[in-house]
Amino acid sequence: MNFTLGALQKLTAEEHVIRNRAALAPVNAQHACMQLSGTLQKLRQKLSVVMLDRPKLNAERVWSAFAASEYDLGRLDGLQFRTLCSDEKTALRSQFVTALMRNRDKLKRSRCLYGMVNAYFSEWREMDDPAIVEELLTSVFASTSGKNPVVQKWRECKRLFSEHAVTFLVEGICAGQKAVDETLKDHYVGPLTQLGRSVRDSAARAACEHLRRTERSRDSEWSVRYLQWMTERLLSDLTRKDAFYYAISSLILSESAKRSETFQRALRSYVQNHKMLGDPRVRESSLNWRSMAPEAAQHYLSWLARDSIIFFFNTILPNNNENRRRKDFWLRYHDRIRDFQVAVSEADLWKVKASQRNSELLHYSQVAHPTTSAFLMRFEGYGAQYIVVEFSEKGNAAYIFKADDFESKRVTMRTPRFDLKKHLKFDDSHRIIHIGDWERKASYKLSSQFGIRP
Description:
Layout: H1 2-13, H2 15-19, H3 29-32, H4 34-46, H5 59-68, H6 78-86, H7 88-91, H8 94-102, H9 110-122, H10 130-143, H11 149-156, H12 165-176, H13 180-186, H14 194-214, H15 220-234, H16 241-252, H17 255-259, H18 261-272, H19 283-286, H20 294-316, H21 321-331, E1 337-344, H22 349-355, E2 365-367, E3 374-380, E4 385-391, E5 398-402, H23 403-407, E6 417-418, H24 420-424, E7 431-432, H25 438-450
Parallel strand pairs: 1-2, 2-6
Antiparallel strand pairs: 1-3, 3-4, 4-5, 5-7
Helix pairs in contact: 6-9, 12-14, 14-15, 14-16, 15-18, 16-20, 20-21
């Protein structure tokens, strides 16, 4: 209103501009604007009483009046009828649906029909007698003429208004590797409706099943593209937690993750940076992993353990034959590692910091020692868990402790700073000494005494 008034006032004030424009014959601007000026005056007189729109009606009050009229649609004016159609609490009540079944032409008004359909999607098949609601809607679609693209889409997709709606939409998503949001939008289904959420969750599960059935016959490039589709176009913040964690667990345990390093690295990047997951070694993120399948969580941790073993022996330790043998030995056990931690000395700290840009080793502890670093591993064994500690410098055996004994020293795997002798060498009863054919002896010792096997 203010904008219109201002524009009219400027137009009246610029009479000389209009009169002298080269491309036009001279005009009397005041005469030309006479009708607009009259309208302006009338608007000013009515400014305090003009209502731009009727206030939104209260659906429950309209319903009370509708019930008092014994559910007579004829007693409702257009706005009252539209209010009942558009409110999810009233649109699908059995009395209203029954009345509409007797007078279906009322739903041919687009805004009323849209309201009913949205209410149906929002309460998908959880209302009383969903089949009757579906019959009402599909009959209205069939009898509605014109070229309304929304109604045409709904008329063509009859399965959308049935118990098979989720299957119908999921089949289209998975067959064409489409985005969930695009498919819902194409069918005018709200993403936050019950149907929209059900489609999103079912698509996540169906995609995992399809991967499981077909991945053995596909190459790694196909698997990586499939993973990209799932993480970028299928899963989202709107995916419910149980479906999301099921999907990620399936991807971690997939054959594609086992055979393709590219697939595994892409999946790890997604997991490490996702707010619903993150690094399982971090306390805040570890809570998220409780919702994952235990086997998948352990499998993922073993990937991190493998890379940390490689990092420890390749980056912190000198590259020589003895250290390569130790690295190869512990890599055989990476699938059995339940937890791990790198603890670096003062001399090795710079190596870790220099490598952090190119490594996932973002979390480490320190050893209160000038030169000796350590790699701690937790294993499940005979009736207990055990901690194995390997050291960076020559002359150090690998120490084996019961986890309870280790934690009795008031430390955990995440303790920020370890004392070398007090925490990491407090008991030399069980050690692996790296002399001669030590690998065979160490394997036997771990297996026979502690129940730790590759």
